[in-house]
Amino acid sequence: MIDEKPIRTRYHAIRPSLDERGRRLQAAAEAVSAGYGGVAAASRATKVARSTIGRGIKDLREPGR
After folding, report:
1. Predicted pLDDT at 63
2. Cα(62)–Cα(48) distance, integer angstroms
3. 14 in helix, strand or coil?
4. C-alpha distances in angstroms, 15 versus 30, 37, 52, 56, 57?
5. Could you tell me where the beta strands, DSSP code E, fall in 25-64?
6. Do residues 45 and 30 make contact, with C-beta atoms less than 8 angstroms apart?
7. Is 28 in contact with 60 (CB distance < 8 Å)?
8. Helices 20-34 & 38-46, crossing angle to 10 degrees?
9. What pLDDT is stored for residue 1 in this prediction?
10. Residue 10 and residue 25: Cα distance in Å, rounded?
């Protein structure tokens, strides 16, 4: 089980200074670093849709897009 509290704390600390892309990338980075089940945990912790996190993961993998 992934502890969502640290994800939530980090995300809410930085969220005011992020635009839509930044929020997507931050949530995606949390999901990737959490490993298996990370997308679901990051989605619950940040209230960012799973599909948005998925797009963020693609952006992280292909930064030049």
Report:
1. 79
2. 20
3. helix
4. 13, 22, 15, 15, 18
5. none
6. yes
7. yes
8. 140
9. 85
10. 13
CB neighbour class for 44 (10 Å; exposed up to 12, middle 13-18, buried from 19) = middle
Q: Encoding tokens for residue 32? A: 């990737």
Go through the chain and tell me how many residues it has.
65
Cα(40)–Cα(53) distance, rounded to whole angstroms? Answer: 9
Q: Are 27 and 43 in contact (CB under 8 A)?
A: yes
**55 close to 25: Cβ distance less than 8 angstroms:** no
- Is the pLDDT confidence value at 65 over 70? no
pLDDT in tens, 1-57: 899 999 999 999 999 999 999 999 999 999 999 999 999 999 999 999 999 999 999
Rounded to two decimals, the pTM is 0.91
